[in-house]
Specification:
Blueprint: E1 2-3, E2 9-12, E3 18-22, E4 25-31, E5 35-41, E6 46-52, H1 70-83, E7 92-97, H2 114-129, E8 133-138, E9 143-149, E10 155-160
Parallel strand pairs: 2-4, 7-8
Antiparallel strand pairs: 1-2, 3-6, 4-9, 5-6, 5-7, 9-10
Helix pairs in contact: 1-2
Length: 166
Protein backbone atom coordinates (compact mmCIF):
# COMPACT_ATOMS: atom_id res chain seq x y z
CA UNK A 1 0.00 0.00 0.00
CA UNK A 2 1.34 3.43 -1.00
CA UNK A 3 0.14 6.58 0.71
CA UNK A 4 0.04 9.53 -1.67
CA UNK A 5 0.40 13.20 -0.74
CA UNK A 6 -3.36 13.75 -1.03
CA UNK A 7 -4.06 10.94 1.49
CA UNK A 8 -5.27 8.41 -1.08
CA UNK A 9 -4.23 4.87 -0.25
CA UNK A 10 -3.42 2.99 -3.47
CA UNK A 11 -3.94 -0.78 -3.42
CA UNK A 12 -3.01 -2.82 -6.49
CA UNK A 13 -4.62 -6.26 -6.59
CA UNK A 14 -2.56 -9.09 -8.04
CA UNK A 15 -4.28 -12.30 -9.18
CA UNK A 16 -5.82 -13.93 -6.12
CA UNK A 17 -5.90 -10.73 -4.06
CA UNK A 18 -8.94 -9.45 -2.18
CA UNK A 19 -9.49 -6.11 -0.45
CA UNK A 20 -12.46 -4.76 1.49
CA UNK A 21 -12.51 -1.46 3.36
CA UNK A 22 -13.36 2.20 3.17
CA UNK A 23 -11.89 5.66 3.40
CA UNK A 24 -9.86 7.27 0.67
CA UNK A 25 -8.74 3.99 -0.85
CA UNK A 26 -8.22 3.44 -4.57
CA UNK A 27 -8.17 -0.17 -5.74
CA UNK A 28 -6.77 -1.10 -9.14
CA UNK A 29 -5.92 -4.21 -11.11
CA UNK A 30 -5.20 -5.58 -14.57
CA UNK A 31 -7.34 -8.40 -15.97
CA UNK A 32 -7.04 -10.87 -18.81
CA UNK A 33 -9.05 -14.06 -18.41
CA UNK A 34 -9.41 -13.32 -14.68
CA UNK A 35 -12.48 -11.67 -13.14
CA UNK A 36 -12.81 -8.72 -10.79
CA UNK A 37 -15.97 -8.07 -8.86
CA UNK A 38 -16.48 -4.74 -7.11
CA UNK A 39 -18.95 -4.19 -4.25
CA UNK A 40 -19.81 -0.73 -2.94
CA UNK A 41 -22.21 0.31 -0.19
CA UNK A 42 -23.51 3.77 -1.22
CA UNK A 43 -24.62 4.88 2.27
CA UNK A 44 -21.65 3.60 4.26
CA UNK A 45 -19.00 4.29 1.58
CA UNK A 46 -17.36 0.90 2.03
CA UNK A 47 -16.65 -1.84 -0.44
CA UNK A 48 -14.13 -4.09 -1.99
CA UNK A 49 -12.71 -5.87 -4.98
CA UNK A 50 -11.54 -9.37 -5.75
CA UNK A 51 -9.33 -10.64 -8.58
CA UNK A 52 -9.89 -14.33 -9.13
CA UNK A 53 -8.17 -16.55 -11.66
CA UNK A 54 -10.14 -19.81 -11.81
CA UNK A 55 -13.79 -20.92 -11.42
CA UNK A 56 -13.13 -23.16 -8.41
CA UNK A 57 -11.23 -26.05 -6.87
CA UNK A 58 -11.71 -28.91 -4.46
CA UNK A 59 -10.88 -27.50 -1.04
CA UNK A 60 -10.56 -29.32 2.25
CA UNK A 61 -13.02 -28.00 4.83
CA UNK A 62 -10.19 -26.81 7.09
CA UNK A 63 -8.17 -25.11 4.33
CA UNK A 64 -8.11 -21.30 4.36
CA UNK A 65 -10.04 -19.43 1.68
CA UNK A 66 -7.98 -18.57 -1.40
CA UNK A 67 -8.98 -15.56 -3.51
CA UNK A 68 -7.60 -17.18 -6.66
CA UNK A 69 -10.86 -19.15 -6.98
CA UNK A 70 -14.32 -17.73 -7.74
CA UNK A 71 -16.25 -19.58 -5.03
CA UNK A 72 -13.70 -18.68 -2.37
CA UNK A 73 -13.52 -15.02 -3.46
CA UNK A 74 -17.32 -14.83 -3.00
CA UNK A 75 -16.96 -16.44 0.43
CA UNK A 76 -14.42 -13.72 1.31
CA UNK A 77 -16.96 -11.08 0.22
CA UNK A 78 -19.66 -12.77 2.33
CA UNK A 79 -17.39 -12.67 5.37
CA UNK A 80 -16.52 -8.98 4.84
CA UNK A 81 -20.15 -8.00 4.30
CA UNK A 82 -21.16 -9.84 7.49
CA UNK A 83 -18.32 -8.20 9.48
CA UNK A 84 -19.63 -4.82 8.24
CA UNK A 85 -23.10 -5.74 9.59
CA UNK A 86 -24.60 -5.32 6.14
CA UNK A 87 -26.35 -7.48 3.53
CA UNK A 88 -25.48 -8.34 -0.09
CA UNK A 89 -28.56 -6.56 -1.48
CA UNK A 90 -27.29 -3.23 -0.07
CA UNK A 91 -24.27 -3.19 -2.40
CA UNK A 92 -23.76 -1.94 -5.92
CA UNK A 93 -22.08 -4.80 -7.77
CA UNK A 94 -20.00 -4.62 -10.95
CA UNK A 95 -18.24 -7.46 -12.80
CA UNK A 96 -15.31 -7.17 -15.22
CA UNK A 97 -12.90 -9.43 -17.09
CA UNK A 98 -12.96 -12.83 -18.66
CA UNK A 99 -11.15 -11.71 -21.80
CA UNK A 100 -9.78 -14.39 -24.09
CA UNK A 101 -6.02 -13.86 -24.08
CA UNK A 102 -4.88 -16.99 -25.91
CA UNK A 103 -6.60 -17.20 -29.25
CA UNK A 104 -9.30 -15.82 -31.48
CA UNK A 105 -9.95 -19.42 -32.56
CA UNK A 106 -13.48 -20.56 -31.66
CA UNK A 107 -12.33 -24.18 -31.65
CA UNK A 108 -10.73 -23.91 -28.19
CA UNK A 109 -12.11 -26.83 -26.12
CA UNK A 110 -14.58 -25.79 -23.39
CA UNK A 111 -12.33 -27.19 -20.65
CA UNK A 112 -9.55 -24.85 -21.79
CA UNK A 113 -11.77 -21.76 -22.12
CA UNK A 114 -11.02 -20.44 -18.64
CA UNK A 115 -12.19 -16.91 -19.53
CA UNK A 116 -15.74 -18.00 -20.43
CA UNK A 117 -15.92 -20.37 -17.49
CA UNK A 118 -14.83 -17.54 -15.15
CA UNK A 119 -17.59 -15.25 -16.46
CA UNK A 120 -20.28 -17.93 -16.12
CA UNK A 121 -19.13 -18.77 -12.61
CA UNK A 122 -19.20 -15.11 -11.55
CA UNK A 123 -22.85 -14.71 -12.53
CA UNK A 124 -23.84 -18.07 -11.02
CA UNK A 125 -22.17 -17.34 -7.68
CA UNK A 126 -23.33 -13.73 -7.43
CA UNK A 127 -26.96 -14.84 -7.89
CA UNK A 128 -26.54 -17.67 -5.37
CA UNK A 129 -25.04 -15.32 -2.76
CA UNK A 130 -27.68 -12.59 -3.21
CA UNK A 131 -25.59 -10.01 -5.09
CA UNK A 132 -27.20 -8.27 -8.09
CA UNK A 133 -24.77 -6.83 -10.67
CA UNK A 134 -25.80 -3.56 -12.28
CA UNK A 135 -22.77 -3.32 -14.57
CA UNK A 136 -20.87 -6.05 -16.39
CA UNK A 137 -18.12 -5.80 -18.97
CA UNK A 138 -16.99 -9.36 -19.58
CA UNK A 139 -15.76 -11.62 -22.33
CA UNK A 140 -14.42 -10.70 -25.70
CA UNK A 141 -10.72 -10.43 -26.45
CA UNK A 142 -7.92 -8.64 -24.65
CA UNK A 143 -7.25 -7.16 -21.26
CA UNK A 144 -8.86 -4.58 -18.97
CA UNK A 145 -7.48 -2.11 -16.46
CA UNK A 146 -9.72 -1.18 -13.50
CA UNK A 147 -9.60 1.64 -10.99
CA UNK A 148 -12.16 1.70 -8.14
CA UNK A 149 -12.43 4.55 -5.61
CA UNK A 150 -14.02 3.35 -2.37
CA UNK A 151 -15.01 6.84 -1.20
CA UNK A 152 -17.20 7.50 -4.30
CA UNK A 153 -17.97 4.06 -5.72
CA UNK A 154 -16.70 5.15 -9.13
CA UNK A 155 -15.13 2.45 -11.29
CA UNK A 156 -13.09 3.29 -14.39
CA UNK A 157 -12.25 0.66 -16.92
CA UNK A 158 -10.03 0.68 -20.00
CA UNK A 159 -10.36 -2.28 -22.38
CA UNK A 160 -7.64 -3.12 -24.84
CA UNK A 161 -8.57 -5.80 -27.41
CA UNK A 162 -5.86 -8.11 -28.74
CA UNK A 163 -5.73 -6.16 -32.01
CA UNK A 164 -4.26 -3.19 -30.11
CA UNK A 165 -7.29 -0.88 -30.17
CA UNK A 166 -8.48 0.81 -26.98
Amino acid sequence: MIELADDINEVFLQPGDFHFGGGRTRLSTLLGSCISITLWHPRRLIGGMCHYMLPGRSRAADAPLDGRYADEALALFDQAVARAASRPAEYQVKVFGGGNMLSRDASVPRAMDIASRNVERAHELLARHGYHPTVTHCGGQGHRKLIFDLWTGHVWMAHRPLDGGL
